[in-house]
Amino acid sequence: MAKKIIIDTIYLKESNIETPNQVEIFGKEIAEVKCDLSCQSDFKKIFFDEKETYEVGLSFQIASSCKVDQYNLHLYTLNFIQSGLFRLEGYKKEDEALETLAVDIPNILFPYARLHAELITKSTGLHPVLMQEIDFKEIYYKEIGKKYK
Fold first, then answer.
1. pTM for the full model?
2. What are the pLDDT digits (tens) for 87-130?
3. Residue 100 DSSP code
4. Measured between alpha carbons, how far is 128 from 124 in angstroms, rounded to an integer?
5. Which parts of the chain are beta strand (E)?
6. Second label for 27, Cα 20 to 30 Å away, from 57, 74, 116, 123?
7. Residue 69 φ then ψ, to 5°
8. What's the CA angle centered on 9, arms 49 and 42, to 5 degrees?
9. In angstroms, what CA-CA distances link 134 with 5, 24, 59, 67, 103?
10. On the CB side of 129, how many CA atoms lie within 13 Å of its CA?
11. How far apart are CA 23 and CA 58, in angstroms?
12. How many CA atoms lie within 13 A of 50 on its CB side?
């Protein structure tokens, strides 16, 4: 049996954005924008439609600040979880399934997360965040102590 990832659903589990200095920033010339991003992934085995399924989530924390005149101002803080329900078929070895859950499925979820981050930050009227690719395989290999190929 060939290995397959079956997508049951992809969804936004939660999202929160704060824009504490929005009024002070509107109409001002912004000299530079700084953005800090962190991302964690996790998964848990559940039963969905009476089938063994994995709920996989990517949690993002994005903080953006800017320089206006001589002041550093906070643009926004965005926290959200992009999730999905996935079934794995044909995975005989546990380490292959774990790598799929830590690498391949986050790669499936990431474009949805990127789109959400851009749309929600653009809707603030401030500089939108444009998330760069994340190499989940490199991160996973570093985490388990395996050489990245």
1. 0.90
2. 999 999 998 999 999 999 999 999 999 999 999 999 998 889 99
3. I
4. 8
5. 4-18, 30-48, 51-68, 71-89
6. 116
7. 55, -125
8. 95
9. 20, 33, 13, 27, 10
10. 27
11. 31
12. 0
